[in-house]
Amino acid sequence: TQSTWDSTTDNSTTDAVIYQRTSVSRVYLSITMSTPILYSYYISSCSFRVRIALNLKNVKYQYRSVDLRSGENYQYDFKRINPLQQVPVLQIDGHTLSNSWAILEYLEETQKGLPLLPKEPEKRALVRTITDAIVSGIQPLQNVIVQK
Prior knowledge:
Elements: E1 4-9, E2 15-21, E3 26-32, E4 37-40, H1 45-56, E5 62-65, H2 76-81, E6 89-92, E7 95-98, H3 100-110, H4 121-138, H5 144-147
Parallel strand pairs: 4-5
Antiparallel strand pairs: 1-2, 2-3, 4-6, 6-7
Helix pairs in contact: 1-3
């Protein structure tokens, strides 16, 4: 059956109601607009970093799987979310953030919970040095695009 998606927002709350109309029935799904959405892939180490940080910061979020092996990240719907067509992507506070390190920095600066970085500037610099080595040197060799 062909279906269409409609959405309505109740102005008295931050909840949006999304429903699917089919020739047979209506299915209602309520999504809280303030709940962050993480687009991720289960074996992506970049996505692992973000999931760990979200849990350390006690941020409740919706998980949306993007299958990199099947090329789902190259589909039009995902390209509209992230033109770079990579995971992770975090939609939070009305922003769409990509790049795991940028997401971690954002979470550190905006969310309560356990700190992701030490307080001392020299220790923060050391963490950033190590992170840069991983992100720039080690990580690219694991990416699906390099493996193809």
